[in-house]
Write a structure and sequence with these properties.
Radius of gyration: 27 Å
Helix content: 10-25%
Structural class: alpha+beta
Strand order of the largest sheet: 1-5-4-3-2-8-7-6
Number of helices: 4
Shape: elongated
Number of strands: 8
Length: 195
């Protein structure tokens, strides 16, 4: 759940970094200056005007430090969120379109770019590392290997049947296959030719 609200208080528990004087940008819109909170439970920004928003880690698809001023005029902490949030999402929801534009419907995407620009640009790496640590506390359940896939890799042998026997007739064996004369390989047969 992505929360955009003015009444949600900033997190108080598990806060790794509290960065005052940080401008927030949601998509193309500048939201002003406020305080960025990177906590174990969520990322929150509280503006000086009382507005703010909160992002839960499972919805943050990507976070990075961006120093490319040709893409955005300031070095920033860049986040890609898997939902349309902000005023454009509120407007779309109120007009009955369900929160997605025609372009989003055509592309099947609903992504919002969020940028945090601290007044102290030297803090970007610390913000990134704190966010990486907190993000790792919320692993994506879709990234786990299923029990069936895990069973496929159990055992130390490459026996196709999975019983671990060194059966010479199996598909991975060196005996009895088509084109195999049953005679030992000639030594040096794969050496480089002499010129």
């Amino acid at each position: 759940m992505v929360v955009v609200t003015s009444s949600l208080p900033p997190p108080t528990e598990g806060v790794r970094i509290e960065q005052p004087s940080t401008a927030a940008h949601m998509g193309p819109r500048a939201l002003g200056s406020g305080t960025l909170y990177i906590a174990e439970s969520r990322v929150a920004w509280a503006g000086t005007d009382g507005q703010g928003f909160s992002l839960e880690y499972p919805h943050i698809m990507l976070h990075a430090v961006s120093r490319d001023t040709s893409a955005f005029p300031h070095p920033c902490l860049y986040l890609m969120v898997d939902a349309k949030i902000g005023p454009q999402a509120d407007d779309a929801a109120s007009d009955g379109s369900g929160g997605s534009s025609d372009e989003d419907a055509a592309s099947g995407s609903s992504v919002t770019e969020v940028r945090f620009v601290p007044s102290d640009g030297g803090s970007l790496d610390a913000l990134f590392h704190a966010m990486s640590e907190c993000q790792s506390l919320h692993p994506d359940p879709n990234d786990s290997v299923s029990a069936d896939e895990d069973d496929y890799f159990v055992g130390g042998d490459c026996d196709a049947e999975g019983d671990g026997d060194d059966d010479e007739s199996g598909p991975m064996s060196n005996g009895g296959g088509a084109g195999d004369s049953g005679e030992p390989m000639e030594t040096g047969q794969f050496d480089d030719p002499e010129e």
